């Protein structure tokens, strides 16, 4: 753990509820600017600013899920028209873009600030998703997919960062609850695609000879609509809801006056009487170097101290395991069931999108339950991850016995419930225990590990043995491993801050 976190563990930072200057004694080390800002946020309390920021960050979760879901809807329709050799490798392009974007935007947010990078990220998603609708070839579609994913990957990393830096400690559970919006994003995308696929796409079994562009506009309309929705969310985020630059980032750059202005803006929006003055903050020298050496130093600082290094290693392992297990399981399972004669219904569009909508709605409940469980003292973040991770292999293993439509729908709902619940806690926990100065790149690095690991899924789906149940049970083992690694995490956020 870095020295700033150690100082917070070894003493209670003086309260600034009335805005007084804190008087340090030789008996305790001085508070850092970051801890003083956190005290100010506690004094201001939860209010309109945080709720608006949470809504803006929710847009990022919806946009992320729209990207991930739309690729599975676009891929089979576009492949009829373009006839690529390996159509199922299109998601690999998307995962690569998501991984690179998470790292690039993480670095940019720590070097240049949170606000601008956060605002342009979802705007980039809207532009390149809509542009993908004009793709004349399969190669062009891949280019637009990777560009949209690049901005999408960066967006989610910064969403977590900006919200974590402005929440009072006891409201940290909201970071986990945001994942419920994945279900909303999935359901909205499916409902939009339903009439478009039914009425404006080539029929099943069509080939590039019989499927022309004019007969296959449905997936293009879907991308245009998603692009427009993301543009609306981008405009609302930038102009209607808005945000001030993160005061913790400003403090890390030695910008005392800007830091005070940011804190007082949050107070004013929340209609709080709290006011911060620049003399409450220590003089702090900003890091002058912003070249490659500085970038490498930022990564190294994520592993500074035994406990911080241990938490980073555990988080990277968790994201790698999740990145492999979830997509391999979801991509491979359908092929396995069909190969073993499971009767999953008539395969009609009605059944497909009905099941999609139902399982997405159930998936929204998981993160809400997790947000409650992380506040239970005996569970907290780590044990909640373990609990939900253990539910995943039970449902995944049971899925191999599915023989009819009802069983398929029931277990689809349960696996969505446990997966989203587990994902929500992991996403919320990740920014909470990052060092303040390097939170964006820390989030970006860990999320990128999961995205890069997910590159394995399209290749396994393309060349895997659909008759073997081994990949499914390997995924079950990976889910169990996630639960075990979660128990090895060194601390809860309350161990750092003193309270949930």
Automatic annotation (TrEMBL):
Start and end residues of each Major facilitator superfamily (MFS) profile domain: 53-495
Ranges in coiled-coil conformation: none
Tree of life domain: Eukaryota
CDD domains: MFS_SV2_like (cd17316)
Location of the protein in the cell: Membrane
Positions of the UniProt region annotated as Disordered: 1-32
Compositional bias of kind Basic and acidic residues: 1-11
Biased composition (Polar residues): 22-32
Keyword list, A-Z: Membrane, Transmembrane, Transmembrane helix, Transport
UniProt membrane topology term: Multi-pass membrane protein
PANTHER family: MAJOR FACILITATOR SUPERFAMILY (MFS) PROFILE DOMAIN-CONTAINING PROTEIN, SYNAPTIC VESICLE GLYCOPROTEIN 2
Protein name from the UniProt record: Major facilitator superfamily (MFS) profile domain-containing protein
Source organism of this protein record: Aspergillus cristatus
């Amino acid at each position: 753990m870095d020295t700033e976190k150690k100082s917070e563990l070894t003493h209670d930072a003086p309260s600034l509820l009335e805005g007084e200057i804190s008087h340090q004694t030789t008996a305790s080390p001085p508070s850092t600017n970051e801890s003083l800002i956190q005290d100010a946020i506690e004094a201001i309390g939860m209010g309109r600013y945080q709720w608006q920021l949470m809504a803006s960050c929710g847009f990022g979760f919806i946009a992320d899920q729209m990207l991930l879901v739309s690729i599975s809807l676009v891929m089979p329709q576009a492949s009829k028209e373009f006839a690529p050799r390996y159509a199922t490798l299109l998601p690999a392009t998307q995962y690569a873009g998501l991984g690179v974007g998470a790292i690039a935007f993480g670095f940019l947010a720590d070097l240049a600030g949170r606000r601008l990078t956060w605002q342009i990220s979802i705007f980039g998603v809207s532009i390149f998703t809509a542009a993908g609708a004009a793709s004349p070839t399969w190669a062009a579609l891949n280019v637009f997919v990777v560009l949209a994913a690049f901005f999408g990957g960066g967006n989610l990393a910064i969403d977590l960062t900006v919200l974590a830096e402005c929440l009072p400690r006891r409201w940290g559970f909201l970071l986990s609850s945001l994942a419920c919006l994945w279900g909303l994003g999935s359901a909205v995308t499916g409902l939009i695609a339903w009439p478009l696929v039914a009425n404006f796409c080539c029929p099943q079994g069509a080939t590039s000879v019989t499927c022309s562009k004019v007969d296959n506009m449905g997936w293009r309309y879907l991308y245009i609509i998603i692009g427009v929705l993301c543009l609306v969310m981008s405009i609302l985020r930038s102009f209607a809801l808005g945000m001030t630059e993160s005061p913790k980032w400003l403090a890390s750059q030695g910008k005392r006056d800007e830091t005070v202005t940011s804190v007082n803006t949050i107070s004013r929006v929340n209609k709080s009487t709290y006011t911060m003055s620049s003399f409450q903050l220590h003089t702090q020298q900003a890091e002058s170097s912003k070249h490659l050496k500085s970038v490498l130093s930022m990564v190294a600082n994520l592993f500074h101290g035994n406990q911080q290094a241990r938490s980073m290693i555990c988080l990277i392992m968790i994201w790698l395991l999740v990145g492999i297990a979830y997509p391999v399981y979801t991509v491979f399972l359908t092929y396995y069931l069909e190969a073993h004669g499971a009767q999953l219904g008539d395969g009609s569009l009605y059944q497909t999108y009905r099941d999609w909508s139902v399982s997405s709605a159930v998936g929204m409940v998981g993160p809400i339950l997790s947000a409650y469980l992380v506040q239970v003292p005996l569970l907290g973040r780590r044990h909640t991850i373990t609990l939900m991770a253990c539910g995943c292999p039970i449902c995944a293993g049971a899925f191999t016995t599915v023989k009819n439509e009802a069983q398929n729908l029931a277990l689809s709902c349960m696996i969505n419930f446990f997966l989203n619940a587990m994902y929500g806690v992991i996403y919320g926990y990740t920014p909470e225990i990052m060092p303040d100065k390097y939170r964006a790149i820390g989030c970006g690095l860990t999320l990128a590990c999961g995205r890069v690991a997910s590159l394995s899924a399209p290749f396994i789906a393309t060349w895997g043995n659909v008759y073997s149940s081994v990949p499914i049970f390997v995924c079950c083992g990976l889910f169990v491993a996630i639960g075990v690694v979660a128990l090895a995490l060194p601390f809860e956020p309350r161990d750092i801050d003193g309270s949930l």
